[in-house]
TrEMBL record:
Pfam families: HATPase_c (PF02518), HisKA (PF00512). Residues 148-368 form the Histidine kinase domain. It catalyses: ATP + protein L-histidine = ADP + protein N-phospho-L-histidine. InterPro entries: HATPase_C_sf (IPR036890), HATPase_dom (IPR003594), His_kinase_dom (IPR005467), HisK_dim/P_dom (IPR003661), HisK_dim/P_sf (IPR036097), Sig_transdc_His_kin-like_C (IPR004358). It comes from Roseateles oligotrophus. Gene3D superfamilies: 1.10.287.130, Histidine kinase-like ATPase, C-terminal domain. Its EC number is 2.7.13.3. This is histidine kinase. It is an enzyme of class 2 (transferase). GO terms for molecular function: ATP binding; phosphorelay sensor kinase activity. It comes from the Bacteria. Keywords: ATP-binding, Kinase, Nucleotide-binding, Phosphoprotein, Transferase, Two-component regulatory system. CDD domains: HisKA.
Length: 368
């Protein structure tokens, strides 16, 4: 808080827990407070941000100037618009470009007369959060539908199989071929339905889980399957604490993701190209103030499974977490659905960024 402030040090520290950038300014644009997210985004120390004029940080600040003054004058209580934030401008080398960040700006009144609250939401962040919330809802809805459908299919299957067996006993051997087809197809459906229902059937076995132990297990399982031509890189943040969870389920989830990566890399593994061969990286990181679904967590861990394969086919990129969506011959399309369900049972989530040459599946799990 600047000494020249006429206010009795209102406390804005609570804004530090927000993921969006927040600044408290005077009508003249002098910045009295900037929260941690703002500081991070500007790549500046708080002291430097707080001594400056908010208007200096915008590419074209006229709109902001007018709005802040309007709100401070009580002409309106709140207003929003899009703008371009200029960051790192102060350190930009001569001739160097400061980079610009598109933001959505929300200016509103505070309880303190002539102090104005300026909230900045990264446009990319906003769309990403929207997308995540939407896909979270969609996954929930699909899961429910799938589960109900699976139950409806499962119930009559036993009856059909039994009837086919009885029929077989009545039929001449040369006709039993047909009942065999029925029984065989019923068994196939049965196992598909069982796999659709699998993640919901067992009560979770909760214990202390170490994410790196999980990674190591998955790594060794994959290396047994792909002993040559696949490089598994480990990049662990060993300061990550243990957490409560179902170890076996989490191994299954991570295994499904890594197995997909290895399958996508199959041509590269076979070619064993010199130099840049097939590579999967397991990376763990700590994350702060993350939103998962609709809940915010102070602390979480991120496990990235990154591969240098061809990327998720564009046609299915938006749907890979839905059941029965598969981009490969003989795939069931259940691997990622199950992985996502397991992550969600741990209050976490999995998302994916993919382009040719780099696919990154990120599993985020909240930490205590
Ligand atoms: N790392 C990856 N690289 C490229 N495509 C991937 C990757 N991971 C998943 N996919 C795509 O997502 C699809 C769905 O995966 P999944 O749910 O495990 O089902 P399945 O493996 O049975 O096809 C895969 O078929 C594949 O097309
Ligand atoms: Mg799979």
């Amino acid at each position: 808080m600047s000494d020249s402030s006429p206010h009795s040090s209102p406390n804005f520290e609570a804004f530090d827990t927000l993921a969006t950038m927040v600044a408290v300014v005077q009508a003249d644009g002098e910045c009295l407070f900037a929260n941690a997210a703002f500081e991070n985004a500007m790549r500046l120390s708080r002291r430097a941000v707080q001594r400056s004029q908010l208007y200096d940080w915008f590419v074209d600040s006229q709109r902001l100037r007018d709005t802040v003054q309007g709100v401070a004058r009580n002409a309106y209580s709140s207003s929003r618009f899009d703008a371009l934030l200029r960051r790192g401008a102060r350190q930009a080398l001569p001739g160097g470009q400061a980079d610009e960040l598109p933001v959505h700006v929300i200016v509103s009144q505070t309880e303190f007369e002539d102090l104005v609250l300026v909230e900045l939401i990264e446009n990319a962040q906003q769309t990403r959060q929207d997308r995540e919330e939407r896909s979270f809802d969609q996954v929930q809805a699909t899961k429910e539908l799938t589960r109900n459908l699976a139950h409806e299919i499962k119930n009559p299957l036993g009856g059909i199989r039994g009837a086919a067996q009885l029929l077989a006993m009545e039929l001449a051997p040369d006709l039993q071929e047909y009942t065999q087809v029925i029984i065989h197809e019923v068994d196939r459906l049965q196992s598909l339905v069982d796999r659709l229902l699998a993640p919901h059937r067992h009560a979770p076995v909760v214990g202390d889980v170490n994410i790196h132990e999980i990674c190591e297990r998955v790594r060794s399982l994959i290396l047994v399957e792909y002993p040559r031509g696949l490089k598994m890189v480990r990049d662990y943040d060993t300061s990550l604490p243990d957490f409560r969870g179902d170890r076996e389920q989490l191994i299954q989830a991570v295994l499904n993701i890594v197995q997909n990566a290895a399958q996508a890399l199959q041509p590269q593994i076979q070619a064993q190209i010199q130099g840049e061969g097939a590579r999967i990286t397991l990376r763990t990181r700590v994350a702060r103030q993350v939103t998962i679904g609709k809940q915010r967590w102070r602390l979480a861990l991120e496990l990235h499974v990154e591969d240098n394969g061809p990327g998720v086919p564009a046609e299915i990129r938006e749907r890979i977490f839905f059941p029965l969506v598969s981009g490969r011959e003989g795939g069931t399309g259940l691997g990622l659905t199950l992985a996502q369900t397991i992550a969600q049972q741990h209050q976490g989530m999995i998302d994916c960024e993919s382009e040719p040459g780099r696919t990154d599946f990120r599993m985020t799990l909240p930490l205590p």
